[in-house]
Specification:
The protein is of the alpha/beta class. It is built from 18 helices and 15 strands. It folds into four domains: 90 residues, no CATH class; 64 residues, no CATH class; 250 residues, Aspartate Aminotransferase, domain 2, CATH 3.40.640.10; 120 residues, Aspartate Aminotransferase, domain 1. Helix 2 packs across helix 3. The longest helix has 35 residues. The structure holds pyridoxal-5'-phosphate (PLP). Keywords: Decarboxylase, Lyase, Pyridoxal phosphate. Its cofactor is pyridoxal 5'-phosphate.
């Protein structure tokens, strides 16, 4: 045990600097006051050092890094510093000093060069992004206008490299100015949360950096995908989990596969002859469906005009009579209807289309039934909530994003289908350089040719790891907690002055409502009421972004003025969070 290791003297000198050893100015400040914070912060830079005790001392007039500096112990003064008595690992000091070295160009981890740096990065990530970033007491964003951010943040690339110290600073700045989507009050979009097991899975994915196209390069991930996709098909209700599936970079792409498979099933010539071989094709989806259906129709040459949008009821569910009428209309026009894309959990209102009725119509007219359950698919986990998707087992294909209701890290989206072999038929090309048929193992495990991607990230790992961690029961509890929170939130606002529901009984965990400031509450009959209400949500959004206290999105839809859509998928929230969020709306709207 030695007094005052070199590491700590250096630390003290950083009182007036930032971003040294991963200690920011604010931490240095608090070091002077709080023992806990001090120890907390010193565990970070000096991994192998135990603080035994510390004392205040006066700063020498000329500070240096030499170990011989004479610090004088004092009781209190403006110039006070801190002297540590510590047990230290001297090797760390040597590595510490390397932090000022420039990063090296070789893309190979080198223990003596990178271990400490990576540990420090991980410490910063854990402290600032993972724990502070999800702490209710902290702001979830630090909004700056683009011009301001360009000044505050060192975006520019240069001929010269950076030092590890500078890189730590950049890491930290990136965290500071990013939105903490794992924060409990990030309730803005259909994804959120920072699942601890998902995070580790994500990190592991990146440490291994696989590409899931052949068994040879991704043996574990290939079998993991097979397992998870089969389990998901069982949960959907495909018999014995039979069928096929792939992980896609997002639900939009999964929906695109639905379109591609549906078309290939009816017109296999499309693959080689292209669009010229086809009549005009028409598909159907509701007017509340996700925009990716139209986007994919454009992308794949079907054309967005050939996506017939079916009316929805007040709640946002597809109108079956209109669906059949539109199908008949398209046939009368001489076009060929080929697919219906139903939605389970619409993006804004959270509505579930009536799948059994849609399946009947698809059978009657020989249409492919796709179910876009990107958002609502998670409800399948729970016996209580899977009723919302009754009939999904009759679908030809399903989009289901575990990165939404199940809070797997971005991105994690599955495309599932009941048909075996169709994916490979529609998209396979047998690239001889990659999918050699004369390999020494069973090449049916070279699954990459089913995809339109070549290299592909192993999105399965983080989800599989979460599933392993929590068990299916844990995922059920997660879903039920999130739905219960949403129901509780709805109950809180349904009859509360200032709140008005877009629909009184939301089906999913996205809840749409207006906040009506006091100044507008008695003006309902005024001519400009709608216009004024339309301006409320954007004004409140600006305020919440600038204060950084929560994030909730808004939109206008179905001829309504702007309304809020709050979204829950984080099972770490509880009833008092629901109460807090309601009060936060009232606070933000109080002066409007
Ligand atoms: C989010 C969403 C999508 C798109 O999924 P991404 O992963 O964001 O591409 C598609 N459909 C519905 C219903 C969605 O809510």
């Amino acid at each position: 045990m030695q007094p005052l290791a070199k590491v700590y003297k250096r630390t003290i000198h950083y009182r007036n600097q930032t971003h040294k050893f991963g200690i920011s100015q604010s931490v240095i400040q608090s070091m002077r006051f709080s023992e806990n914070q001090l120890e907390e912060s010193l565990k970070m830079p000096a991994n192998n050092v135990n603080i035994i005790s510390y004392d205040k001392f006066s700063l020498p007039s000329s500070s240096s890094d030499e170990e011989t500096t004479d610090y004088k112990k004092i009781e209190s003064s403006d110039d006070e510093g801190i002297q540590f008595v510590a047990q230290e690992d001297y090797r760390n000091c040597i590595r510490m000093n390397k932090q000022n070295e420039e990063a090296h160009f070789e893309s190979l981890p080198n223990k003596s060069r990178h271990e400490l740096f990576i540990r420090q990065c991980v410490d910063i990530l854990l402290k600032e992004a993972v724990f502070e970033g999800t702490n209710r007491k902290n702001r979830l964003l630090n909004f700056r206008n683009p011009d301001e951010l360009k000044k505050l943040f060192d975006f520019e690339l240069s001929v010269h490299g950076s030092t590890h110290d500078e890189l730590l600073g950049l890491l930290r700045d990136t965290i500071t100015f990013s939105v903490k989507t794992g924060h409990p009050y990030f309730v803005n979009q259909l994804f959120s949360s920072l699942d601890p097991y998902g995070l580790v899975g994500q990190w592991l994915t990146d440490a291994l950096n696989p590409s899931v196209y052949t068994y040879e390069v991704s043996p574990v991930f290939t079998l993991m995908e097979e397992t998870v996709l089969r389990e998901m098909r069982k949960i959907v209700g495909f018999k014995d989990g039979k069928g096929d599936g792939i992980f896609c970079p997002g639900g939009s792409i999964s929906n695109g596969y639905g379109l591609s498979c549906a078309r290939h099933k009816k017109f296999p010539d499309i693959k080689t002859k292209g669009l010229n071989s086809l009549p005009r094709l028409v598909l159907f989806t509701s007017e509340d469906a996700h925009y990716s259906i139209k986007k994919m129709a454009s992308f794949q040459g079907v054309g967005s005009d050939n996506v017939y949008c079916i009316k929805t009821d007040r709640r946002g569910k597809m109108d079956i009579l209109d669906l059949e009428a539109q199908i008949i209309k398209s046939i009368e026009e001489g076009a060929v209807p080929f697919m219906v894309s139903a939605t389970s959990g619409t993006t804004v209102l959270g509505a579930f289309d009536p799948l059994n009725e849609i399946a009947d119509i698809c059978e009657k007219y020989g249409l492919w039934m796709h179910v876009d359950a990107a958002w609502g698919g998670g409800a399948l986990m729970s016996q209580k909530y899977r009723k919302l998707l009754t009939g999904i087992e009759r679908a030809d294909s399903v989009t289901w994003n575990p990165h939404k209701l199940l809070t797997a890290p971005q991105q994690c989206s599955a495309f599932l289908l009941r048909h075996e072999g169709l994916l490979a038929e529609a998209h396979g090309l047998n690239a001889a350089y990659l999918f050699q048929k004369d390999k020494f193992y069973d090449t049916k495990y070279d699954t990459g040719d089913k995809h339109i991607q070549c290299g592909r990230r192993a999105d399965v790992l983080k989800f599989w790891y979460m599933w392993k961690a929590k068990g299916t029961n844990g995922l059920v509890k997660h879903i039920e907690r999130v739905f219960e929170n949403a129901e509780y939130f709805t109950d809180l606002i349904r009859n509360r002055p200032g709140f008005e529901m877009v629909h009184p009984e939301p089906e999913c965990t996205n809840i749409c409502f207006w906040y009506i400031p006091k100044s507008l509450r008695d003006c309902k009959d005024n001519d400009n009421y709608k216009e004024r209400l339309h301006r409320v949500a954007p004004a409140m959004k600006e305020k919440m972004m600038k204060e950084g206290t929560m994030m909730v999105t808004y939109q206008a839809q179905k001829g309504h003025p702007n309304f809020f859509r709050i979204v829950f998928q984080n099972s770490g929230l509880n009833r008092s969070d629901m109460e807090h969020l309601v009060q936060e709306f009232e606070r933000l709207g109080s002066n409007l």
